[in-house]
């Protein structure tokens, strides 16, 4: 009877230690490299994912959420930028093109919210509309003059989208 409290204390300690160890194992650098090798720029993809401190301890489902959150942030930032460009330009043609971009980025935000909900439910195979993000970003940029100041933010959107696409495709397989 006297050994029982010691046994249960040791068992509890070992169980706690196991839980601590199992929770601290995140996606390995090798897995990140595999995921990001499917994008246009592996180094930037890895940089995007590791910009969030949670990535180092994230499991794959959490990495899906992180990648979608980062893409949602980029889409929101771009939405705000295109709204400002639209509101500040006096050129009617450019105002129209920026308005189209605002609509396209709103569509992206809606697709990302839907993907995020599916990711929360761990329905990774149902996340099928992320590929449309790059098409929408290109459609926006292609409607603008070549000297438009938006090329850099569009590239950021494309790279962040590709990262989320690759993460979620990897998890779905």
Automatic annotation (TrEMBL):
<keyword id="KW-1015">Disulfide bond</keyword>
<dbReference type="InterPro" id="IPR052421">
    <property type="entry name" value="PCW_Enzyme_Inhibitor"/>
</dbReference>
<dbReference type="InterPro" id="IPR034086">
    <property type="entry name" value="PMEI_plant"/>
</dbReference>
<dbReference type="GO" id="GO:0046910">
    <property type="term" value="F:pectinesterase inhibitor activity"/>
</dbReference>
<feature type="domain" description="Pectinesterase inhibitor">
    <location>
        <begin position="27"/>
        <end position="167"/>
    </location>
</feature>
<dbReference type="Pfam" id="PF04043">
    <property type="entry name" value="PMEI"/>
</dbReference>
<comment type="similarity">
    <text>Belongs to the PMEI family.</text>
</comment>
<dbReference type="InterPro" id="IPR035513">
    <property type="entry name" value="Invertase/methylesterase_inhib"/>
</dbReference>
<protein>
    <recommendedName>
        <fullName>Pectinesterase inhibitor domain-containing protein</fullName>
    </recommendedName>
</protein>
<feature type="signal peptide">
    <location>
        <begin position="1"/>
        <end position="26"/>
    </location>
</feature>
<dbReference type="InterPro" id="IPR006501">
    <property type="entry name" value="Pectinesterase_inhib_dom"/>
</dbReference>
<keyword id="KW-0732">Signal</keyword>
């Amino acid at each position: 009877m006297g050994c029982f409290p010691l046994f249960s204390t040791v068992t509890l300690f070992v169980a706690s230690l196991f839980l601590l160890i199992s929770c601290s194992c995140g996606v390995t650098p090798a897995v990140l490299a595999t995921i990001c090798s499917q994008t246009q720029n592996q180094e930037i993809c890895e940089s995007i994912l590791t910009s969030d401190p949670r990535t180092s301890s994230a499991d794959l489902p959490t990495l899906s959420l992180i990648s979608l959150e980062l893409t949602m942030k980029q889409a929101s930032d771009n939405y705000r930028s295109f709204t400002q460009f639209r509101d500040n330009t006096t050129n009617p043609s450019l105002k129209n093109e920026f308005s189209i971009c605002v609509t396209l980025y709103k569509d992206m935000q809606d697709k990302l919210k839907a993907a995020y909900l599916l990711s929360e439910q761990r329905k990774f195979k149902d996340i099928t509309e992320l590929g449309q993000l790059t098409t929408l970003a290109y459609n926006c940029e292609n409607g603008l003059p070549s000297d438009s100041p938006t090329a850099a933010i569009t590239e950021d959107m494309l790279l962040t989208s590709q990262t989320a696409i690759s993460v979620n495709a990897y998890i779905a397989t």
